[in-house]
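Researcher: Structure prediction, please.
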Amino acid sequence: MKTGAFIIFISIVLVVYGLVNSYIFIRGLQAIPGGSLWRPWYIAGFWGVAFTFVLARIMERAYPCGFTGVITWIGSFWLAFLLYFILIAIFVDLARLVNHFFSIFPSSFYIDYPRTKLITLLTSIALVTVVVAAGFINARIPRIKNLELAVHKTVSGRKSLNIVMASDIHLGTIIAMRKANRLVSTINSLNPDIVLFAGDVVDEDLAPVIKNNLGANLGQIKAKLGVYAITGNHEYIGGAEPAVKYLREHGVNVLRDTAILVDDRFYLVGREDRDRPRFTGKKRKELQELMQQVDFSYPVILMDHQPFNLERAVELGVDLQLSGHTHHGQMWPFNYITSAIYDISSGYKMVGNTHFYVSNGYGTWGPPVRLGNRPEIVQIILKFD
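Model: Predicted structure follows.
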């Protein structure tokens, strides 16, 4: 991404982040009585927490250490709290607006109005805490999604292929040693023929991945035909070249606009991420150009991180496309947005003769929280004639 465009983008993000925090800050401050001793603590605590996310993003790359990890966790959780505080504040303000015209609140609501506001604030904090805690627990318990799909092609010496696929792992400060170990042990328990990572294997910053030696975990994956990955937008945000080099050094074959014949029995096609031009100024290859390397008498499996333009895979005769990126919104109600943007926001769909699977992802970005969907590892038994 060009420097000027990057500065403009970051400036917009910081302005929006500041405005949203200010809105929540003011609504909370209004609920605390003017002479209360809690007001200075609230002011200092609120802005101290609000700035941790920005500080963590700066420090994570420049100076990864224990302190950076702590503030990264705090700042990441704050994003989840912020989202649900916004939703509650909007709900309360809409209720007040309706009450202005229709008087829906009982008279007892106004008898001790300062106390009512304080109770509303404390209730909101308790409710959001419970919701975020539930989302945190959910994010730490991935499911195994099992699919059995048929490709009507004959493969010499093989009737089926056991594929284990994961996307959006986001290895880094939040998705670290414990979740990486769980990922590897779960994959190995499924006894895969081949393991496919459909982008965003690492988060933006490679420094915490190196510091925690998370690549060593990936090197313990056991798959008869190997471990393959493609780039996602987060590899490009943090710098695709060092990320790809690191993954390859730890046994992951990264396909970059490449089609290969695996085991002399099926083709695996890996696309560069759709955001490559935005970060490097270089275009990725068109899918039609990639498919010129393919013999379609063999089964063809395509990995493309972002599930856009699915009709092209159908037109060109792809048998199975695997994608991720969406996280299915990660936190409700963002799933409605991703469902509006993508033809498939989550799960399986067959279009023409092409099977599509878009994974919710294994890890998280930002808040280590998932609500309305489950993290997952996908096992696909691909059957041949």
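Model: The mean pLDDT is 92.
Researcher: Thanks, that helps.
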